[in-house]
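Worked Example 4.2. Consider the chain below.
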Amino acid sequence: MNEIDTAAPRTPRTWSGFATSAALQGLVGASGCWNEDSFADIRRIGRYIEGSWVPEPGEREVRPPAAGSWTELIGRTGALALRAAAPATRPERREVLLDFLEMWARTPFADPAYRFRLGRLAGTTSFTVRDDQGASFGLHLPAARWTRYFEAVLPGGEAAPRPEEPLYVVDCHRGWGTPEQLLRLVELVRERGPVAWDADAAIALSEATGLSRPAAALVLAGNPGAGGYYKPLLDEHERALFGFKAGELASARAELSMLRDDERLALLADVLPADPVDLWAPGGLARVAERTAAAWAEQHGARPHAPWRTWQAAVALETRMPATHLCHLFLDPANAALPPGFYLRAWPCPSEHRHLRTAWDVMGDYDATTVADAVFAGLPWAYADLPAGDPVRAGAPEVVHHLRKVLAGRDSPARVLYSGVIRGNRGSGRWDWLADGTCDRVIARITADDLPAGRYESDPRACAPDVVADVAATLDLVEDAAALYLQLLLLPVPSDRNVRRWNAWTPARHKAAAAELVTRGLAVEDRRARAGRTLFLPGPWAQAKKPLPSMESWKAPVIGARLSTDGSEVRAFELLPGTLPELFTEAWRLVCGGEGPTA
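Applying the procedure from the previous section yields the following structure tokens:
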């Protein structure tokens, strides 16, 4: 035994299954299978493997801990150690993790002199067996037709005993987490507290991997998409530390849901420094981020990175596809990843489904709605709500190319399935938009490069300056007020925040333009639910339930929204029926013809 092993351990504490599962969630599965004896059970099986186990009175054999999912931690405790040292981990969960790591350090599972392997057996019998070479055990899961298989080879041994040949068996990873490293980290956390958070390190990880900033922060805190068995996953203190909104963190969790528990463990297995004290040194967390980025690239390859403001805007779309994956769909259309949570991520993947590798593949199979919602929400958003020069906006033409390629052929399976989804659940408007030339004109606007970099198509001064000039001259308005009037006439969500972003206005400039419209009787001031603004066109108002926008009833037919029979509610709104220059022109034509909004 080495010197660490002979050191006196702390008095073991007993943790409830709830506390243990909450602390380990997202890294080790088998929720509900942990109990108050789990730590002791792991210590006991460790003593059995090394040959020091002595049966308690009445015991005949050692029994492995329930479910056996703890075996996935062998050689991969780096993720737990990072979570234990992270400042975002709740104190009660940190204590569970520290106790677990201290317990683990005093078992053969942390000792690099032992060799471990995991696999499966075809049988359904639990067993334990040991000789002078090593030990093995099998744990049958009641709901499974197979048995989890585990074997340990003692130092100097050649092979563990096997009662039967396994279906497969693989060597356990051997990475960070020697007894000395684990106990040193536990000691440092208890003496110094958690490491200081480094927001810049999380940003660097985001830019290097293509992860969103919130997702990168979760990964760097040892919480890479943890399952939400125990709520809240993140409390107010944790969210405040990261500095992200609840919706942004929820999108990040969905983004990371593509990872299985074992992939999360593998990602963070070797990212900690050889000497844990480096975590508390200047730049310590930044160095962890660099190693994590390399591990991510090895697991998932290089992925494009969306601008931060673009990602934030994508979150607001609330599509079935997380914001990062929606952005990836436009940033690299040819290699767009499968939707997260897609069932083909289950292992083993049926051989007949292994050809499905991208989002476009599943449009012809089982998950058309997820991709369809993302494409048909993303296309108008990229066109109207992102600035010229944005890489997500620039990818829209290729997205349309791939969409049409998938749907090519009148009787293709993808076309039949997809058209059924759209016509059956969404109406024919989205299909018509793709086929009647509207989509082509929108894409032509994107590729024409008429807008200066950084300008928005939703700013009529940028996309329809002649119309703005005509409005200003006809109504005797300054240019700002004329532009704002056109935006109120046409755009579905001309919130204060959106208008200032599209127009690059300060609040004072926006207020001045609004005041002119109110003085001239072209707009009214009011407060209305879910509007995000205080300036409205005169006339009736149509309420809407999320995700549909509430709007002035007058503009609904102009922009293709469908109202209830009495006009009081927005029932459907999918795609603008034309380009914004066309629609600004049409809205102004109606006003000039005496068909504008009236009180």
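Confidence is low (pLDDT under 50) at residues 1-6, 341-355, 420-428. The longest helix spans residues 368-385. Compare this with Example 4.1 before moving on.
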